[in-house]
Amino acid sequence: MKKLIEQYIGIRKRIKAYEYALYMISWDSETEAPSGCFEYRGEQIGVLVEESYRIETSEEYVHVVDTLYAHRDELDADLYHEIVEVKKHIDKTRKIPMDQYVAFQILLSKSQTIWADAKKKNNFELFKPTLQKIISFLKDYIRYLETDDCKGYNILLDEYEPGMTINDYDQFFNELKTRLVPFVKKVIAKAANDESFLSGKTFDVDGQKQFCSYLQDVLCFDRSHGLMKESEHPFTTGSGSTDVRFTNHYYPKNLQSALFSAIHEMGHALYEQQCDSKYDGTFSTGGASLSLHESQSRFYENILGRSKAFWEQHYSVLQRQFSKELQDVSLDEFYRTINQVKASFIRTEADELTYSLHIMLRYDLEKAIFVEGLSIDDLQDKWNDLFFEYFGLVVPSVKEGLLQDIHWAGGMFGYFPTYALGSAYSAQIFHYMKKDLDFEGVIASGNTKAINEWLKTKIHQFASSRYPKDIIRQAIGEDFDVSYYIDYLISKYSCLYGINPS
Description:
Layout: H1 2-31, H2 38-56, H3 59-70, H4 77-94, H5 98-121, H6 128-145, H7 153-160, H8 166-190, H9 205-218, E1 226-230, E2 236-238, E3 244-248, H10 255-273, H11 290-304, H12 308-321, H13 323-326, H14 331-338, H15 355-370, H16 379-391, H17 417-436, H18 439-444, H19 449-458, H20 468-476, H21 483-497
Parallel strand pairs: 1-3
Antiparallel strand pairs: 2-3
Helix pairs in contact: 1-2, 1-3, 2-5, 3-4, 5-6, 8-21, 9-10, 10-11, 11-17, 15-16, 15-17, 17-21
């Protein structure tokens, strides 16, 4: 067993090296690579992916993993979990023809640049052929991986949240539709004449960057093991706990976008940085699932970042940064503005209350594609029809509609539902955090160190060495319950808008 484990660790080290190289190429592609490099870059990515694929499907590696799997009860808990997941991954990979797998990775290396150009030019036709190829591959991928227990769109859902199915998400979203949507409509009607105290103002981009840098220290982001840059769509990425990077985007007319994107992405980044370093270099590094990751980003962005207590400590710093623009905006006015509810087009800038409606729309579209066979030619019209049904708004352009998100360009169908599930997780986690911490007292200290430590102890340290449902159960002592999320939102926005929640 000792020799087998050493052999496994040696092969794993080689695979992780390829992963690191691909991670660095991807980071560069998203942040500062010249636009003309992607054709040649795609060829190099193809070579790296092919070599990695060969290692992962080699007789030696498969034999080692299969043997360890057969004797998994002799392994420690961490390696047991890792081998079970690696075995599952290998079994999947071996079902996919190498030429198709490599071609798909090359396609993805170019697709996000094509998407960005189509979005900039407000022209879906520029991206449609690429998206069609992505969807076609994923339909083949589903056929390769289907089993008696997991079929169709469930294959993709399981990729991002192990064990979650269409039935699970349908029940979850139906709870939101039943209890939350009627309340959302009440608030939107009440908020129709709300004034935004930031509208019409221009905020210097360099000033925004300086304040977002200040926020890194407030949230205790470790700059020696991470950094912030700029990209079209904010995201977080990394390799282990020692190299964690995130991006932001800045709009002169929209200060809120940069503020809350930065806090959101740092929620992801802190999770990665606070994973136990013993998992670095293993396949158990990083967050346990997409929804658990989103629970952290949404917690920091909304529950922490949009709280009155947070801005009681930091609004004066923001005012000094933008003394001319904010001198006539009080803390109360600012707080009301950052929690303003309105039907809006852009998911990433949606308020906390209406956010899950944006996710439901995308989930319904993905089901339409992979369950009902919706044609890509009808996708834009379907988006616009559903958007009007959910929000009562006519989508003015494709860049504010179907092309606004990068996820499908990255092949990430099945990802979106985890955003809503993660938001719901965050409310339940917050409920139990308040039993152990004086939440507002911690915020009054000027930074989030004690909050970070609580999350590290309860959730972050385990990385992906356990399943998300098990981490949640151990952290708070019960299984997931969507009612905490619904109750949290109704309580907060009833107070903000003077609405009787009954």
